[in-house]
């Protein structure tokens, strides 16, 4: 990773805080989970900063939420799932789409991220139900499907929010960078 300026570090820290606050304050309980904007903001972070820095702010923002809200034992799983989503987006957006942020590509990226999150949650809970709970694989999978209602809700939020939030945040950050250059000249 290249050396980051103090301004970039502050911006990334504020973005991680935005992820944390969005999950902390804007969540809707749904079964054993809840619907939130955190995953959508992770996708927007990848679009704005690239997959490496997006993964960093995702790990900090979502990890901080887990640690401060009684999920410290599972924080590593949250971070791993975020890294998986960022890696898939790296392959799709930065690899296949060559980081071209057309409206169509942004929508596709949101859908891919949502599906990746659903699949990773299904695998996680199927394994937990099977290995820890002792259920056979088919029952473990069906139990996982029932358990991840919040994931389905957050996936829908991601699909809807990413194409709306990305252009807005891109414009805000572009304006901030323009103002900084103007002031420093």
UniProtKB/TrEMBL annotation:
The organism's superkingdom is given as Bacteria
Cite the entry's keywords alphabetically: Membrane, Transmembrane, Transmembrane helix
Entry's Gene Ontology cellular component terms = membrane
Q: Which residues cross the membrane?
A: 41-65, 71-93, 105-127, 139-166
Q: What is this protein called?
A: ECF transporter S component
Q: Name the source organism.
A: Streptococcus alactolyticus
